[in-house]
Amino acid sequence: xxxxxxxxxxxxMTLLLxxxxxxxxGKTGMTIALVIAGVMNFVSYxxxxxxxxxxYRAQELPQNHKVYWITKKLTESAGLPMPKVYMINESQPNAxxxxxxxxxxxxxVTRGLVELMDDNELAGVIGHELGHVSHRDILxxxxxxxxxxxxxxxxxxxxxxxxxxxxxxxxxxxxxxIFGLLAITIFAPLxxxxxxxxxxxxxxxxxxxFGAKVSGxxxxxxxxxxKLETYSTRIPMDAVPATENMFIVSPLxxxxxxxxxSTHPSTAERIKKLEEIY
Length: 278
Known about the structure:
This protein is α+β, with helices and mostly antiparallel strands. The chain has nine helices and four strands.
């Protein structure tokens, strides 16, 4: 089932990339965009986890680090393979999981998360991320982030094409001109964001439920989410917008526009659902 969802996601994103390519360069642009989409789909399936980890300069943690041991204990309790564990040198408390399947998974936490949370709260957060691993959300989330980044890049190209070229097309193409290109600049990234929202919000509740159970008590994750909600809005993070859907809470929570189109459900609602478990 997850394979079908991933295929549909890749197809929709590919069509969006082709549409942008056609707007920028007509049939030639559409062909180039199709080739780019093919390469991006291949790369995002096999290497998107490495791309995202390198994007945030994540460093793999040694086996004697407490985050490693908490993760090991939780994976043994959940019956999951041990993922690689990374730390991101960011003050904002946050975390994400990535990889293409449970056997090729990684969990990344920020320095701020480790400094702010006690061991029980860390277990709740890591348990949530292992929920994404267990439910095989990590592939579709990482693929969505990688392709959304490509769409944002091409949309930026459309903006410059509108400024300098006015949107040249082949003779037998429709002529959208500068206004068509500007519309794409605005709406293509928004469409990619809406797709990410559609695939992310319901998955967060499921991962919360998993994290509550595997960590030992729902209050551990609920307490962690309260802290994350407070500090993520106070401490900025140099995060790539396309990867927002991967984190346990939005790393862009301080931005009003990002909050409006957040890929995450309300933190207050998530806490409420956790408190209803017991």
